[in-house]
Write a structure and sequence with these properties.
single chain; two-stranded antiparallel sheet; two-stranded antiparallel ribbon; mainly alpha
Length: 382
Amino acid sequence: MIFSHTHLLQALTQAIEEDDLSAVREIYETLGKAQGPPYTIPAFSFDDTVAVIHGVELNPLALCIRVGHLDVARYLIEVAHCNVRIVYALYKGIGKTPVHILCEYGHLQLLTYFLPLHLDYVANQGASHSSIPDDYEELSVFQEGKQYRPNPISSIFTNTQTPIQRACEFSHLDLVKFVWRYMKDRPVCHDFDIHAIDDRSGENCALIAARVGDLPMMEFLFFDCAADFTVKTKRKESALQLAVLSKKQHSAEKDFECVKFLLEKVKLDVVYEYEETLLLCDNSMVQEYIEDVLQENGVSTCKEIIEDTNRIKRSHPQRLSRTYVELEERARAAGPEFDMKQLFPEDLAVSSAVSPIPQLSLTPFSVLSRGQTPDLGVNVSN
């Protein structure tokens, strides 16, 4: 029977997606192995691209990691001898590694199997901290030929979230617990360092959990991992402010519990940029609670007062003081008959809407003799 290359790709893709190990085994036993001497080219390579997801070309093993099927992945690695290095090269195109994908999608079983392979792979990369092989150009199957495809992220270890941070981002608590326990007595690996800080955002796992409003994750990170919740982001945001924002960004239902946990258990400083914190609140329960805690810490205020104050500041921005020379020049330009608005247009813009400004007749300052009082056109009686 003759199989077209396209037919084989479709059949293998379907088998992987459906976690059909028997079908994967049949395809490999029939068409994947070299028939004859060792130098014979196989009829079908299991390192060929079988699917494209979000613009990323995936071979069988890379696809299996994406869908998270343990038995098929083990077979592809141990029996079909799929090249793990190629999988790293494929995922480099989006600035990630296979363990980023496993942590992001919460594939705990497959991560349990793949984690030792990843640690060995990272160790073999040496001090370069590059999880992509040096011969990536030759391994790349994204483009025809051997053209280098530049990575938009200079280092997947320092300029984007680590795998463990991705797990926190998507609230995979069981996976985070497994990694923490697995790595506890092993040398520190940046990929799975609970305390690592993302160079781009300034967040660690604790701040990520606060931002997504994941109370169980926050509790585990604080009580079991001793994670630092006092870290500030690159924009100087605190974990408290991120928790207040969590409802807006992620529709979190337990934002009050998260805020309460941060203030009562973690003991975060509620006074830190408290005005900004209250302005971020859109939950009346959270707002009132923070105001009460502020009161206990000697700060008597509320969101409404802060909003009114900021509204006044926006309506009356700080202006430079008028110098005598500037006023004299304005008076000379206006002539003997002018409206006061011509001297103080910005300052009187708001008040003139409330009460009319009378027309005044003034003599420019420069033509007054010493001690002479300008005629204001107003009769003053005792």
